[in-house]
Amino acid sequence: MEQIVENLRIRLLTPEDKERVHTFFRRLGEEGTHFFNRNCGNEKVAYAFLRGELPNHIFWAAVDDTPDGEEIAGIVFLWNKNTKIPWLGIGITEKWKGKHLGRRLMTTAKEWAESVHAGGIMLTTDQKNLRGQGLYEHMGYQRLGIHHDGEFLYLLALPNENVK
Ligand SMILES: CC(C)(COP(=O)(O)OP(=O)(O)OC[C@H]1O[C@@H](n2cnc3c(N)ncnc32)[C@H](O)[C@@H]1OP(=O)(O)O)[C@@H](O)C(=O)NCCC(=O)NCCS
Q1: Measured at the alpha carbon of residue 155, what is the angle toward residues 153 and 161, in degrees to the nearest 5?
Q2: Largest CB tally within 10 Å, which of 23, 49, 99, 117?
Q3: 70 lines ligand 1 (CB under 6 A)
Q4: How many domains does the chain have?
Protein backbone atom coordinates (compact mmCIF):
# COMPACT_ATOMS: atom_id res chain seq x y z
CA MET A 1 0.00 0.00 0.00
CA GLU A 2 1.26 3.49 -0.87
CA GLN A 3 2.67 5.41 2.05
CA ILE A 4 1.05 8.82 2.10
CA VAL A 5 1.90 10.97 5.10
CA GLU A 6 -1.25 13.07 4.62
CA ASN A 7 -3.37 9.96 5.27
CA LEU A 8 -1.93 9.49 8.75
CA ARG A 9 -4.03 10.74 11.66
CA ILE A 10 -2.35 12.59 14.49
CA ARG A 11 -3.97 12.04 17.86
CA LEU A 12 -3.09 11.93 21.54
CA LEU A 13 -1.54 8.72 22.84
CA THR A 14 -3.77 6.78 25.27
CA PRO A 15 -3.19 3.85 27.67
CA GLU A 16 -4.84 1.55 25.08
CA ASP A 17 -1.82 2.19 22.81
CA LYS A 18 0.60 0.13 24.91
CA GLU A 19 1.06 -2.72 22.40
CA ARG A 20 1.23 -0.26 19.50
CA VAL A 21 3.91 1.73 21.34
CA HIS A 22 5.90 -1.46 21.90
CA THR A 23 5.73 -2.26 18.17
CA PHE A 24 6.62 1.35 17.26
CA PHE A 25 9.88 1.21 19.23
CA ARG A 26 10.78 -2.13 17.53
CA ARG A 27 10.35 -0.45 14.12
CA LEU A 28 12.66 2.52 14.64
CA GLY A 29 15.53 0.92 12.80
CA GLU A 30 19.18 1.28 13.72
CA GLU A 31 19.43 5.06 13.30
CA GLY A 32 16.13 5.74 15.06
CA THR A 33 17.00 3.44 17.96
CA HIS A 34 20.38 5.11 18.32
CA PHE A 35 19.09 8.68 18.21
CA PHE A 36 15.68 8.26 19.86
CA ASN A 37 15.78 5.21 22.11
CA ARG A 38 19.30 4.81 23.42
CA ASN A 39 19.19 2.52 26.47
CA CYS A 40 15.42 2.31 25.89
CA GLY A 41 15.18 5.73 27.56
CA ASN A 42 12.27 7.19 25.60
CA GLU A 43 10.48 3.83 25.56
CA LYS A 44 10.51 3.71 29.36
CA VAL A 45 9.24 7.29 29.48
CA ALA A 46 6.39 6.38 27.10
CA TYR A 47 5.29 3.42 29.26
CA ALA A 48 5.45 5.55 32.41
CA PHE A 49 3.27 8.14 30.66
CA LEU A 50 0.77 5.44 29.63
CA ARG A 51 0.61 4.27 33.26
CA GLY A 52 -0.37 7.81 34.22
CA GLU A 53 2.88 8.49 36.08
CA LEU A 54 4.01 11.52 34.04
CA PRO A 55 1.26 14.16 34.14
CA ASN A 56 3.75 16.78 33.01
CA HIS A 57 4.21 15.05 29.64
CA ILE A 58 1.96 15.09 26.57
CA PHE A 59 2.35 12.58 23.72
CA TRP A 60 0.89 12.49 20.23
CA ALA A 61 1.03 9.64 17.72
CA ALA A 62 0.78 9.69 13.93
CA VAL A 63 -1.42 6.68 13.26
CA ASP A 64 -1.75 4.62 10.09
CA ASP A 65 -5.12 2.85 9.65
CA THR A 66 -4.10 -0.49 8.18
CA PRO A 67 -6.34 -3.50 7.44
CA ASP A 68 -4.84 -5.04 10.60
CA GLY A 69 -5.68 -2.02 12.75
CA GLU A 70 -3.86 1.10 13.81
CA GLU A 71 -0.08 1.30 13.56
CA ILE A 72 2.02 4.10 15.02
CA ALA A 73 4.26 5.72 12.39
CA GLY A 74 5.68 8.45 14.61
CA ILE A 75 5.56 9.95 18.06
CA VAL A 76 6.17 13.47 19.29
CA PHE A 77 6.05 14.54 22.92
CA LEU A 78 6.62 17.50 25.16
CA TRP A 79 7.73 17.38 28.76
CA ASN A 80 7.80 20.00 31.46
CA LYS A 81 4.70 21.01 29.56
CA ASN A 82 3.53 23.33 32.30
CA THR A 83 6.70 25.42 32.17
CA LYS A 84 7.27 28.37 29.81
CA ILE A 85 9.69 26.40 27.64
CA PRO A 86 8.80 22.69 27.39
CA TRP A 87 11.21 20.14 25.85
CA LEU A 88 10.42 18.13 22.73
CA GLY A 89 11.19 14.57 21.63
CA ILE A 90 10.33 13.02 18.25
CA GLY A 91 10.77 9.65 16.56
CA ILE A 92 9.53 8.13 13.32
CA THR A 93 9.65 4.48 12.23
CA GLU A 94 12.07 3.45 9.49
CA LYS A 95 9.21 2.98 7.03
CA TRP A 96 7.89 6.53 7.48
CA LYS A 97 11.17 8.45 7.73
CA GLY A 98 12.14 10.89 4.98
CA LYS A 99 8.57 11.77 3.98
CA HIS A 100 8.21 14.98 5.99
CA LEU A 101 6.06 13.38 8.68
CA GLY A 102 8.42 15.13 11.08
CA ARG A 103 7.05 18.49 9.96
CA ARG A 104 3.46 17.47 10.74
CA LEU A 105 4.36 16.13 14.18
CA MET A 106 6.49 19.15 15.06
CA THR A 107 3.66 21.44 13.93
CA THR A 108 1.22 19.59 16.22
CA ALA A 109 3.50 20.14 19.22
CA LYS A 110 4.11 23.77 18.26
CA GLU A 111 0.40 24.53 17.89
CA TRP A 112 -0.27 23.02 21.30
CA ALA A 113 2.55 25.09 22.83
CA GLU A 114 1.11 28.23 21.23
CA SER A 115 -2.35 27.37 22.55
CA VAL A 116 -1.05 27.35 26.13
CA HIS A 117 1.00 30.52 25.54
CA ALA A 118 4.39 28.85 25.94
CA GLY A 119 7.40 31.05 25.27
CA GLY A 120 9.17 28.44 23.16
CA ILE A 121 10.23 24.81 22.79
CA MET A 122 13.69 23.37 23.48
CA LEU A 123 15.29 20.17 22.28
CA THR A 124 18.66 18.52 22.06
CA THR A 125 19.93 16.25 19.34
CA ASP A 126 23.04 14.20 18.64
CA GLN A 127 25.64 16.21 16.71
CA LYS A 128 25.62 13.44 14.10
CA ASN A 129 21.84 13.59 13.59
CA LEU A 130 21.90 15.57 10.34
CA ARG A 131 18.37 14.61 9.34
CA GLY A 132 17.03 15.81 12.69
CA GLN A 133 18.99 19.05 12.42
CA GLY A 134 17.60 19.57 8.87
CA LEU A 135 14.07 19.18 10.20
CA TYR A 136 14.54 21.43 13.23
CA GLU A 137 16.15 24.21 11.21
CA HIS A 138 13.40 23.95 8.60
CA MET A 139 10.86 24.36 11.41
CA GLY A 140 12.54 27.57 12.60
CA TYR A 141 14.55 26.18 15.55
CA GLN A 142 17.83 27.95 16.23
CA ARG A 143 20.95 26.14 17.36
CA LEU A 144 22.08 27.77 20.59
CA GLY A 145 25.23 25.74 21.15
CA ILE A 146 26.16 22.53 22.90
CA HIS A 147 24.13 21.26 25.86
CA HIS A 148 25.99 19.90 28.90
CA ASP A 149 25.28 16.35 27.70
CA GLY A 150 27.29 17.05 24.50
CA GLU A 151 24.27 17.26 22.18
CA PHE A 152 23.32 20.31 20.12
CA LEU A 153 20.77 22.50 21.89
CA TYR A 154 17.95 24.02 19.83
CA LEU A 155 15.28 26.59 20.69
CA LEU A 156 12.11 27.58 18.89
CA ALA A 157 11.13 30.96 20.26
CA LEU A 158 7.41 31.64 20.08
CA PRO A 159 6.26 35.24 19.67
CA ASN A 160 6.55 37.34 22.82
CA GLU A 161 2.91 38.35 22.82
CA ASN A 162 2.05 34.68 23.43
CA VAL A 163 3.94 34.56 26.75
CA LYS A 164 1.72 34.48 29.87
C1 LIG B 1 14.70 12.98 12.64
C2 LIG B 1 13.28 12.75 12.16
C3 LIG B 1 12.28 13.11 13.25
C4 LIG B 1 13.05 13.64 10.91
O5 LIG B 1 11.74 13.50 10.45
P6 LIG B 1 11.49 13.13 8.89
O7 LIG B 1 10.04 13.28 8.62
O8 LIG B 1 12.09 11.80 8.61
O9 LIG B 1 12.27 14.30 8.19
P10 LIG B 1 12.75 14.42 6.67
O11 LIG B 1 13.14 13.11 6.09
O12 LIG B 1 11.73 15.20 5.96
O13 LIG B 1 14.09 15.24 6.81
C14 LIG B 1 14.10 16.52 7.31
C15 LIG B 1 15.22 17.28 6.61
O16 LIG B 1 16.48 16.67 6.96
C17 LIG B 1 17.36 16.70 5.84
N18 LIG B 1 17.71 15.30 5.58
C19 LIG B 1 16.92 14.28 5.23
N20 LIG B 1 17.63 13.14 5.16
C21 LIG B 1 18.90 13.47 5.45
C22 LIG B 1 20.11 12.73 5.53
N23 LIG B 1 20.13 11.41 5.33
N24 LIG B 1 21.23 13.39 5.86
C25 LIG B 1 21.21 14.72 6.08
N26 LIG B 1 20.09 15.46 6.03
C27 LIG B 1 18.95 14.84 5.71
C28 LIG B 1 16.66 17.41 4.78
O29 LIG B 1 16.98 18.78 4.89
C30 LIG B 1 15.19 17.22 5.12
O31 LIG B 1 14.38 18.22 4.66
P32 LIG B 1 14.01 18.32 3.05
O33 LIG B 1 13.69 16.93 2.58
O34 LIG B 1 12.83 19.21 3.03
O35 LIG B 1 15.21 18.92 2.40
C36 LIG B 1 13.06 11.26 11.73
O37 LIG B 1 13.82 10.98 10.57
C38 LIG B 1 13.38 10.28 12.82
O39 LIG B 1 12.54 9.97 13.65
N40 LIG B 1 14.62 9.77 12.84
C41 LIG B 1 15.04 8.78 13.78
C42 LIG B 1 14.88 9.21 15.25
C43 LIG B 1 15.47 10.55 15.52
O44 LIG B 1 16.51 10.91 15.03
N45 LIG B 1 14.77 11.31 16.36
C46 LIG B 1 15.19 12.64 16.79
C47 LIG B 1 16.08 12.52 17.96
S48 LIG B 1 16.61 14.12 18.52
Answers
A1: 160
A2: 49
A3: no
A4: 1
